[in-house]
Amino acid sequence: MKFAPMSIAFALTASCAPGAPDIEISDAWARATAPGQSSGAAYATIVNRGAADRLLSVASDAGSAMLHRSDNDGGVARMRMLSELPIPAGSSVALAPGGTHIMMTGLAAPLAIGADFPLTFRFAGAGPRTVKVAVVAAGAR
Ligand SMILES: [Cu+2]
Questions:
Q1: 101: CA distance to ligand 1 center in Å?
Q2: How far apart are CA 81 and CA 26, in angstroms?
């Protein structure tokens, strides 16, 4: 019996072990804030082509960042802090206005249209991922 040598393709994909999360963060954006406004929100889409993962925390140089969810509680809009966000296997999780978002408080400077700032997402499985958040005009989207 003859064994074929291990293919290069297998060697390359072996680092992406079965059962590992495969996380990509896209379309990270925030609305511009007015001078004197110390808080804002950021949004993004988290795509996971691998196994289930969890978003544990977010952090930014621009201010303090935390995971929030907006709920409509009997007609009263409320926000609550999330200790973590499940990212199911093979899913796309949208952080969007009116739902789960990244709350930014204690902004050192206003978020200016056209600027960007770094935001680090820390996942239980995939580890830290830093993306640039694009600041767009309030009302642009
Ligand atoms: Cu919030």
A1: 6
A2: 22
Strands of 1-141, DSSP E = 23-31, 40-48, 53-60, 64-73, 76-81, 85-87, 92-95, 100-105, 116-123, 127-136
By percentage, how much of the chain surpasses pLDDT 70? 87
* Residues 52/58, Cβ–Cβ less than 8 Å: no
Tell me the per-residue pLDDT of 26-52, one tens digit each, with 9 for 90 and over. 999 999 999 999 999 999 999 999 999
Q: How far is the CA of 129 from the centre of ligand 1 (A)?
A: 21
The pocket of ion ligand 1, defined by CB under 5 A, consists of: 68, 79, 103
Q: From ligand 1's centre to the CA of 19, what distance in Å? A: 32
